[in-house]
Design brief:
By secondary structure, this protein is an all-alpha fold. It has one domain. Helices cover 87% and strands 0% of the residues. It is built from three helices and no strands. The longest helix is centred in the middle third of the chain and has 130 residues. The protein is rod-shaped and about 190 Å long.
């Protein structure tokens, strides 16, 4: 070392002081650089964390939007299916009512025909009975038979 070679103690002491100041200054500069580097690293990591958090929030928002969209689509599909089924049921009910109405009309027409047939039979019996009574009173001809051919008309007698 050069300090040991110096014979003057004051000079050696001055040299040590200068070297010490340089070393302290250099250490301070290194410490400042380290501090600055650490601050930059911390800032970058904070930025990265912030970006990651922002991306995470965006992903959550997108997932939530997709979830809402899927729920809405499924609700729409269910509503459409329900509407279609109700429509088919209503068509079946209408067809059933129409069939019942048709059957009901056929039944009513048959009932009316039966009533008319029975009325005709009663009128014929009454006509036969009246004819018997009239013929018996006048003594003109014999009484009409109940079992007349189906082609017989009461108006032919009159």
């Amino acid at each position: 070392m050069a300090v040991r070679a110096l014979k003057d103690i004051n000079q050696a002491e001055q040299l040590l002081i200068v070297r010490r100041k340089k070393r302290i200054k250099k250490q301070q500069e290194i410490a400042a650089q380290n501090s600055q580097m650490q601050a930059q690293v911390a800032q970058q990591s904070a930025m990265a964390a912030s970006q990651a958090k922002q991306q995470e929030m965006q992903m959550k928002a997108q997932l939530e939007a997709q979830k809402i969209q899927l729920e809405t689509q499924s609700e729409i599909a269910v509503a459409q299916a329900k509407h279609q089924m109700e429509k088919e049921l209503e068509q079946m009910r209408i067809m059933g009512r129409n069939a019942n109405m048709g059957n009901d009309q056929v039944f009513r027409s048959q009932l009316e025909k039966q009533k008319d047939d029975r009325k005709d039979d009663r009128v014929k019996k009454q006509a036969v009975e009246q004819s018997k009574l009239i013929a018996q009173r006048k003594g003109e001809r014999g009484a009409l038979q109940e079992d007349q051919p189906s082609g017989f008309d009461i108006t032919q007698l009159l």
